[in-house]
Amino acid sequence: MKIYKWIDKYNKRYCYKINNKYYRGRDAGNTVFFRLHPNIILYYLIRLIIVLAGTITLKKSILDELKRPLFSKRSVFFSPDAYSAFSIRMQEFLLTLFGYRFFVSPSALPQLSQKEIMRQKISFPKVDNPEISVIIPVFNQLVYTFNCLKSLENNIPDTVKVELILVDDCSTDDTPIFLTQNVSGITYIRNEENKGFLMNCNIAARLANGKYIYFLNNDTQVTADWLNPMLKLMEDEQVGCVGSKLIYAHGLLQEAGGIIYQDASGANYGRNDLPDRPRYNYIREVDYCSGASLLLRKSDFEKLELFDQRYIPAYYEDTDLCFAVRNVLKKKVMFHPLSEVIHFEGVTSGKTIKKNTVKAYQEVNREKFQMKWQQVLLEMHGHRNDVSEDSRKFLPAKRLLFIDDIIPAHDRNSGSYRAFQLIRMLKESGYHITFVPDDANKTEPYFSDLVKMEVEVLYRYPNRPAMIRELNATLEKCDVIWISRPQMNMEFRWLFKQFPNAKWIYDTIDLHHIRLQRQALQSGDEALFTEAARVKIDELKIAEAADLTLTVTEDEKVLLEKEGIKTVAVIPNIHDPIFSTKNIPFDQREGLLFIGAYNHPPNVDAAQWLVNEIMPKVWEELPEIKLTLLGSKPSSQIYDLASERVIVPGYVTDVSDYFKTHKLFVAPLRFGAGMKGKIGQSLAYQLPVITSTIGSEGMNLRDGKNVLTAANTEEFAKKIILLYNDEILWNTLFNNSHIAIEQFSYPAVKRDVSALLDDLLF
To answer: How many CB atoms lie within 10 A of CB 676?
Structure first.
């Protein structure tokens, strides 16, 4: 229903406005009564209209949102020790109704009463030679410590050996009883006198046995898979420490890395903004990351002689550590957006500076920090400017904008695999890459795959105009704009007005008009001929305007040059040989294999021709042969081909066993353009190939040496029968497969890409 889209769009927008306005007010020192601010009341009215519309139309998400607090006995925010169950329900319902619970993570653990906590048991495995020592300083606040430990128990990866060290700074509640009697597998230290946060961390660090030290506040809750991304980044010896994306319990962002200015004042980048905005969701180097969740090597911490004691009892010690990592150890301080930690900031010390409190040391220690790092601050840190621009100061000087129709689904089709590998090459060449998927979707796991490569992905947020605003707000400079496919180039030409000095690369992927012409010839569809002519005009116009046009085959390069396009280069599909320690021999293999993305018409046509016309002739002589139609997005047309002899598995994450066990790969493509990824993939696995001339084009393949080619139904059937029975011919094709793709290897293509960009820019 159209109204549902309206509800979703405006519900999120106004819940954000309510929360952002209120929590900014609280940060400014206002009380809870700031909820009655006239501007917020206006937002409430809109929110109530949205809720009413959702209720009347029985929108499930709205109804579930309202029911949740009424049927829950617990709250993330209200303790059962302080409020009755009825009071908690009513408060949570009202706060939900007025939008304050919209962004709260469903994984956030609720508060239990002290009695309930004392009946709970938490257990961690005792490990020898831990990889990570998790250090958690505690002082009272057992409710938060319990939930912190519970989140760790739920989310520590089984593959990582972790020890937990808790330092209790003279708690006066039930913390010592609980940690000694109800928690197993931890190292518990209780101070005889209160030493403060900094000294607690240093005490624990001296006892740590792990290669890495991970500082974690007790008022945090870790989330699923928060640790592995940090560890992966630390594999780079140039990385000194890694911090998490900190999200407030109410669901807005606390910090996506920190910024320090010349006067030593700081800014939590993204504070009280939406945590899923693209600008907060890429790996980047930062001034500092909060010690609420910070990972570094123990050896580096020891080289720096632990936290500097001039900052006792607390505040600025984590900022000082990050500055020392960068300026003393000459290593990077990194923010990782895929490591998400919920933080109940200020539980122990509060959020506002008050006289005679620990929080008062924030200003005292700022002055100490400024004095210690005065020269660095003057040389490397400016005055407060645009915060978004300030957050990007450590990015590589070379900037490249890469635009394609989707985030590359690199295991589903050859075009996406090529794009993914090209992005990897460009990163290795020193570019900061901003990737824009035209379909708007933040598709997993492919979004995370790009983030792990330190690519900035500007997915549409929350609609196309907003995505364009995000582009304008984010990109302060651009050297190269690489746009795939003709329709994308037509759609994003406006970028060259914003960045007139940027070089324009038009990546054809394949010449679309050639594919359409061939499909029209195959089907006799006059409308396709007309469409092909229109697309050809567009493709030539774009190629004339671009600084460089890329094709995937030499044949297509020649075609464009004949049309008068002068700046054309070939960047083919990328195929590296796949080596097996034990190749299955000819006589132990069986069956035929075809692979393709079935939302692509050439693949559907090839599969139908293969099953309906070619295979019946093969089955007359070899009735036992089975055919597997492997690949993503099989349509009803493909599923209709399934039988006892034709297997349609659908999408398979790891296809290697199929290529290693089948005897032949058959690809009877009758139309299409460019290099065919499926042919290169088969050659990489050394699976002998029978295909058409269209299937083998652009790869310099020779019939009888690297592949077998066939032109019609009879030829395909005969060659399948021949190769299925001829071990000598099969071994010839098998042995020559890797030779055929040497020129398409990753190192070879990377050299070509680097040379092209050097020529283009310099």
So the answer is: 29
